[in-house]
Design brief:
Layout (H helix, E strand, L loop, with lengths): L4 H8 L3 H61 L8 H12 L4 H14 L1
Length: about 120
């Protein structure tokens, strides 16, 4: 009679094997979902890191440009080194209103666009 138990068990609970298979499949799908979510979070973090690097590079380029432009202005107009911000602004506005300043600015901008 012992040898019939396995067969009896299967016949008493038809579909039991499918239930275990469904549970195993569900568990596998949940595990796969969790792994994909983890991978997606890692990609999101990589995007954040790359965006931060890009912003840092842009900020560095702007700071460098401002320093270089300020050094050029001090080289051309050495007295501006001792001027405060408002005085430099007034000086540059006065320069921009001189005859021919608009044409010179346009020429400089076009030369900068070409180079």
């Amino acid at each position: 009679m012992l040898h019939h138990r396995q067969g009896t068990s299967a016949s008493l609970f038809p579909g039991r094997k499918e239930v275990y298979h469904t549970v195993d499949k569900r568990g596998s799908l949940l595990k796969q979902r969790d792994e994909v979510k983890k991978e997606a979070a890692q990609y999101e973090n990589q995007v954040k890191i790359l965006l931060n690097k890009q912003r840092d590079a842009e900020r560095h380029a702007r700071n460098h440009r401002l320093i270089v432009h300020g050094a050029i202005m001090e080289g051309v107009f050495p007295f501006t080194a001792s001027m405060d911000d408002e005085a430099i602004k007034v000086f540059l506005i006065a320069l921009s209103r001189l005859p021919g300043a608009t044409e010179a600015a346009e020429k400089a901008q076009n030369a900068g666009d070409e180079g």
